[in-house]
Predict the structure.
Amino acid sequence: MYNIDYKTEIPVIIGRPSGAELNETIAAPLDKYPPRKWWIAFSVTLSMLSIGAFCVIMTLYKGLGLWGVNQPVGWGFDIVNFVFWVGIGHAGTLISAILFLLRQRWRTGIARFAEAMTIFAVMCAGIFPLLHTGRQWLPLYLVPYPNQHGLWVNFTSPLLWDVFAVSTYFTVSLVFWYLGLMPDLATLRDRTSNKFKKMIYSIFSLGWRHSHRHWQHYEKAYLILAGFATPLVLSVHTIVSFDFAVSIIPGWHTTIFPPYFVAGAVFSGFAMVQNVLILVRQYFRLDHIITLDHLERMNKVILTTGMMVGYAYGMEFFIAWYSGNQFEQFVFLNRALGPYAWAYWVMVTCNVLFPQLFWIRKIRRSIPVMFIIGILVNVGMWFERFVIVVTSLSRDFLPSSWGHYIPTLYDVGILIGSFGLFFTLVLIFVRVLPVVSISEVKAVVEGAQPGHHD
Amino acid sequence: MINMQSQHLYGITALFNTPDEIIHAANEVSAKGFTRFDVNTPYPIHGMDKAMRLKNSKLGFFALAFGIFGTIASVGLMSWVTLVAYPLVIGGKPFWSWPAFVPVAFEVTVLLASVLSVLAMIVIYFKFPNNAHPLHDTTYMKRVSTDAFGICIEAKDPLFDEQMVTEFLKSLGGKDISPIRIEDSSRVLGIKLFDPKFIFILIIIAALSSGTTYFVFNKLLYMEPFNWMSKQNKLKPQAKSNFFKDHTGMRLPVEGTVARNNFPHVQTGSMDSTGIYLHNPLEVTDKVLEEGKSSYRIFCSPCHGNFGRGDSRLRGQFPNPPTLHSDKVRNLTDGQIYNIISNGQNVMPGYDLQIPRENRWKIVHYIRALQRAQNVSEKDMK
């Protein structure tokens, strides 16, 4: 039906744009006044952000009593959202680090954007545990520092591991992102005629000169960072899953959690990156740089990780039965048939069934369909965290201490606010920084590297 | 107009159009023996290291050193905290539970190795930030930023000769060959440390940051809503409350009820009646006397003295009471002494609210023991 030769590598970029053309395509939007569409989008996200800001300020002022959390469900939307956003962040590092090490050159078009999304997603994630601590103005106690009370943190607690994992992840992602930006900022600096912009670009490019004596170390540093970020990205969601797996609550106390969480994180992260990239390539007319082949490959990753997640769902049920532990068995029956069954079946439908459509090539390459599936995947992944957190806590060992969790409007408001923050940052990012790495794309255009005829 | 005499030469640059040309040019330049030259390209060109005869980057060793430092530092800190500074038993596990240290040790290793390596690269190898380099703001830099491939031979190279280098670059096929000159005065100098403007800005920053810090830590954190739980929805003693009809927050016991273990006063009344009706309910034992002694020491001894001689420790701040060894006191019944402890006498206040009933009887026993020890009878001497 389709005559595709999978043996030859698909060109990363359509056509052979010159360096000047690439500069123009990628950097030109930064110099123009934002169009109407951008302002509409920005006002929507800013409104969402202000709803969230209002709910956060009320939470600060009145306390956690405004939320739906109570005994026995002490972890509600806050932890669900935290795990969800950290998961979204995983795609960026996976694309920039793991695909770099695997020499997947198609990553160049999307890496910058995915890395930025990582940073924004981790920022959104960071809000929730900080709010959840209750007295939000004392976060310094999360850090082991010598203090006059002689107090130290508990190094054997998974919650502390989380502090280290998430903050390391954020810092390393930021450094990685900045390192990639440095040559591009220098290009922008040499391109602009605006004095103020030139000053800003000069400060942040640190005086980059595109010197090969620098490129040599730069490439090494990029390789080292990719090497460190690869185990790091796997460790972060592993450690997040330890928050659950190290406890003894049925439904949480399982060894499958670390790989299951990492697969789920990549799954949801890719869906989010795919969604936003579709909007960006349409908006900036970057069709030849972020090609349909890129999106198809991302869909393949979504299909693969979706099946890994589906396998984990099945395996959880099998192990519950195989363990012979009646509490464990009950938790899983309760998930599928209990009061939160609707959430469970939303999760299964969105995460396991819909991605299967990506087996069909036409759907893999159809932008509207993949966009909808991407949204559904993220809905499903949000509900996965909801199911894990809430069903296990609401009905554990003692029926006398069962409860039912109902989120309040403040919970919903902060969730909306986190989406508002994320998309506001994305919208600002696309206006002030190049969404595609200029220097990396130049390097993968056909004919950009010397021929092997020596 | 720029005065050519006041400038000196930094180097000579040439531009090339294709990656193959620049590799060839770099190869020729280094083959000729030039060492102080650089290639500027919009993106890293494969094979350029070899063409420029560059040694491998040593950055990996930095990463290794920083990583090892991170592991040792984090494991060291966690061991010191859990073994020495703050040993806590958690879940019945040993103090030094090394498996729990793995995640933090890993994260710190990755953090330090990656962040410090990049920092080392920028500071040591690149010597950044440096926006004062002669190549900045030149047409050459604008071109290599976009799509041209440039080579620059510095004047400091021992083989440098302006005429010869220009000819040589031309022979390699270089275009736009142009000298780069350094302006003597402004560029090379960095920030002037004692510039009054700079010092003024420093002072402003210092004042702002210390003021903010003071405000946050001494004022802001004690304002609403950071009230440190001092404001709570509960009634404090003596507080007014409109919830109750009498508008007081404190409640009285229901009429006619008695709290557990709290017998109503029977000792009120005259000294005579208490002397007759009240008897010490406690046996004299070592334990009772010990406890009586400690209560006596706390409540009675400040005025009556450790041995009941009326030798107050208060140095006249409160009138001295009479001795407990007078005939009058020795002839009081246990019930009468108990009455005096409970209700007070003359300037002595009552202690019924401060000393529980039992302990008052213990004190009575102890006073009897003191009286007997201080006024030894013939019988006791035997």
